[in-house]
Design a protein that fits this description.
This protein is α/β, with parallel strands linked by helices and 239 residues long. The protein has nine helices and ten strands. Helix 5 runs parallel beside helix 6. The radius of gyration is 17 Å and the shape is globular.
């Protein structure tokens, strides 16, 4: 079987905040059509990887590319047009806007007719949102808000969907439903997923490949089975 091509690559990526360096020579490759997970202890630089990939944080050195196209210097809006979308940690929705208005924001760079068409397709995929379109998004449960955030990202018909801590604040049952939907997005929509997740064992059950960061460097890269069958290695990555 032919190996899937790389859709996103970071090469020798260095960056940080102010004068504080957070990533040190990070090499990362996300395979097209696959789910890649980034794990590691708090402060390891996981969210920073997503911010660099989305253009929210500039590279100090190194490079980023999407489908072979250099990303260095391009804005988040340009990257959305390339097909990269990002669901950040925490604030999942615009609280004061309705569900429909939140979804509309996912297609701000598209013609109105195309947004309407894509929203229809997204609501078929998330039927539970249809009766909530007029509801203020801030009144939804945490799980429902996460679904809105993923649905909003899909309105732009991304090639790559990046998720930062999608489990944050969710109960185990709701978390299970959200992760099932993430897998469904990947399998039925063909969207490549890059997910940063603290619920490590949950992430390992859905990922095709996993990176573990430690102190801003890649400490592990390989199939999840290498960690699930070797708990001592997994433990060491978080010490």
């Amino acid at each position: 079987m032919t190996e899937a091509p790389d859709i996103l690559t970071l090469t020798a990526a260095d960056t940080g905040y102010g004068k504080k360096q957070v990533l040190f020579g990070v090499d990362l490759a996300v395979k097209a059509g696959k789910i890649t997970a980034v794990i590691g202890p708090n402060g390891a630089g996981k969210s920073t990887v997503l911010k660099v990939a989305h253009g929210l944080l500039p590279l100090w050195s190194g490079s980023a590319a999407f489908n072979g196209i250099p990303l260095n210097g391009s804005s988040p809006a340009q990257r959305v047009r390339h097909g990269i979308t990002f669901c950040p940690q925490g604030n999942r929705v615009f609280d004061e806007l309705t569900v429909r208005e939140n979804l509309d924001l996912g297609g701000t760079h598209l013609p109105a007719k195309e947004v309407a068409h894509r929203m229809g397709a997204v609501l078929e995929f998330f039927p539970q949102l249809s009766p909530r379109l007029k509801q203020t998004a801030g009144t939804l449960s945490g799980g429902e808000q996460q679904m809105v955030a993923i649905a909003r990202a899909l309105v732009s018909k991304p090639k790559l969907l990046m998720l930062d801590e999608p489990s944050l604040g969710l109960s185990p049952n709701v978390l299970r439903a959200v992760f099932e939907k993430i897998v469904e997005v990947n399998h039925t929509q063909g969207v490549t997923i890059l997910v940063v997740e603290q619920k490590v064992r949950r992430a390992l059950t859905i990922a095709d490949h996993v990176y573990s960061l430690k102190l801003g460097k890649v400490a592990f890269s390989g199939p999840p089975a290498d960690l699930t069958t070797n708990p001592e290695t997994l433990k060491e990555l978080f010490l």
